[in-house]
Each structure stands twice: as C-alpha cells, then as structure tokens.
Amino acid sequence: MKKINFLLAVAMLTVMFSGCGSSGKIDETPTRGNIKISVDESYTLVLDSQVSTFEAIYTYAVIRASYKNEVDCFKDLLNDSVRLIVANRQLTPAEDQNLRGQQIYPRTTKIAYDALTFIINKENADSTLQYEQIAAIFTGKITSWSAINKNSKLGDLSVVFDNNKSGNPRYIKEKFKMNRVFPSNCYAVNSNEEVINYVEKNKGAIGIISVNWISDTQDSISHKFLKRIKIAGVSHEGYSEGPYLKPYQGYIADGSYPFIREVYVINREYFSGLGSGFAQFIAGEKGQRIFLKSGLVPATMPIRLVEIKK
Questions:
Q1: Which of 180, 225, 275, 296 is the most exposed place for a label (fewest CB within 10 A)?
Q2: In Å, how far are 18, 19, 34, 198 from 14, measured between CA atoms?
C-alpha cells in the first residue's frame, strides 16, 4: 500500500512539472513555446503577417492571437489572461500601478506609427474635410453634408466606428478634448471590416478605421477594400483652404498628417519567454519591415523619404 501511494505521488509530481525542464524551470524560450496574445482589432492584417513570419522562422513557436477591442485587450493583460498585447495606447498610471502591485513590471515598446483614416462612399463628391469640420461633426455642430458643401445632395451625415470600446473613439475624444458622449448620428459596428461595408452601402457615411486596413496594395484583402471606398483628405487645424492630406506613409513619417497615433507592444512576462521573443522580433528589423509594407511607419527602424516630382 505504501508503495502504491509513493507511485501515485510520483505520478502527480510528474504531471505538475510536465511543462517544466529537469531543473523545474519553465520549458519555454524566446523562440520556443505556445502562448496567447491579445491584439487591437485595428491591427489584424499586419499582426497576422507578423505571427506567420515569426512562426515560419521559429518552427517550435506557436502564437495564438486574439483580435479584440482595446478595452478587452487591456482587461486580458491586467487579469493575466495573456502576457502580451498590441494596442495604440500605453498603460494608464492606475493600470501600471495595478501590475506593479502584483510584482509584475511591464515593458512597453513603441513599434509603429499609425494614422486614423476617414473613409467615404465612392459616390461622395466631397472628398476633403477641414480639421474644424471634423471637430464640429463629433461635437454635433455639423449633421448634414450641406453644412460642408452647400451644393451637396447627400442629406444627413453619419459616422461609424469599429467598436464602442475600441481605441478609435477614445482617440477622437482625446484629440478634441471631448468630455461628452458622441452625437446621435455616430454609430459603432463590430470591426474595421464592418466599417468599410457600412460606408460602401451608405452614401452619407464617414467611416473611421486604421490606415493599415487599406494601405497595403500588395495584400489582396487590403487592395479589395481600397477599391470599395474612398479616402478623404484632411487639412491641418486652422487651414480652411488646405492642403488636404491623406494618410500616406510620408505624411505619417514627417508628422504632417493631423491624425497620427503610436502603436505599442506591452509585455508582462517576468522571464525571457516567447512573449519577449515575439516583442523583440516585431521591434527588430524583420518585424519593422512588415510594418513598413503594411502602410504603417516603423518606430525603431529609420526610413528614407524620397520626393518624386512630376
């Protein structure tokens, strides 16, 4: 009987340490393992490329990416559901203190620059928006296209976001220092792709999405979306006559496009595991080239701007 109990104890210990090496350490390295990460849905296309490239190089690595709204990404990180997230804001002081109170010291790395993009229906002739007009739309002062162009026949203007809990409406509120709810002509769907679908079907709509959904012309999905809608040009604050800029990489890189934001990877690992390896990869040369190809601007790799004169 004592022998049986001893064997059962050994079996239980074997199960408990099946995920560990012979020394009791976690059997994971920066290039080997199996982890979950949460990613802001705005970056679905580019992070799919990052994950598939990383896994192709490091064949013993498995990264299961879940694409979610911003609020849920940070919930996952704070609740220890994932060790790593990709989002377009940093931890708040309260969130950072929450983790440090658990003896977790998060590492935040800027990995790219993104741009908020205003998309309109293909049949909308008003393809430019002044900065002040955009502000007036979100404060409810402009609700029809005739307020933008007196000759417009489009009627009521509507705005559609990807999700109520995404980083896009939060960014707009911070940009225009809004302490109020959005007007009743602002709506939310469930994804950037649904925003594109909505704008394609509604002539009076303005959609708000991340530029990487429509900026990689070599990607079949991005190219297909770009054929279905138009990108509005926007002016700088205080410029009623333009110039009207679209979120091209050059204008993002030199800071002249007025709706730029930063993209971060936030890692809560307490050891050098697969999350750390993936964070290093997307901040490194190969990962930064993937961001460049996707239409974002790399944050850790210098780029060269070339002016082409017609």
A1: 180
A2: 6, 9, 20, 54
In sequence order, the 6+-apart residues with CB closer than 8 A to the CB of 296 are: 46, 112, 113, 114, 211, 212, 215, 249, 252, 263
Whether 128 and 214 share a structural domain: yes
Residue 118, helix vs strand vs coil: strand
Q: What is the CATH number of the domain that holds 99?
A: 3.40.190.10
Pair 180, 121 in one domain: yes
Counting the structural domains of the chain, the total is: 2
Same domain as 216, residue 156 = yes
pLDDT tens digit sequence for 123-160: 898 889 999 999 999 999 999 999 998 888 888 999 99
Asked if residue 148 belongs to a domain, the reply is yes
Asked whether residue 94 falls in the same domain as residue 160, the answer is: no
- What is the pTM for the complete model shown? 0.84
**With pLDDT > 70 as the criterion, what percentage of the chain qualifies?**
86
| Closest by CA position to 249, among listed 239, 257, 259, 261 | 257
Task: Give how far Cα 292 sits from Cα of 83, 211, 231, 296, Å.
Answer: 25, 12, 19, 5
Tokens 């390896």 found at = 277
The whole domain housing 137 covers: 114-259
Q: What gap in Å lies between CA 19 and CA 1, rounded to an integer?
A: 29
Query: Please, which residues have CB within 8 angstroms of residue 117's CB and are 6 or more apart in sequence?
Result: 208, 209, 210, 211, 213, 214, 231, 247, 259
In a domain? residue 17: no
Q: Is 14 helix (H, G, I), strand (E, B) or coil?
A: helix
Q: What is the DSSP letter of 69?
A: -
22 found inside a domain: no
pLDDT in the model for residue 8: 46
**For residue 98, what pLDDT is reported?**
95
- Nearest to residue 282, comparing CAs of 124, 106, 90, 46? 46
Q: What is the pLDDT of residue 216?
A: 66
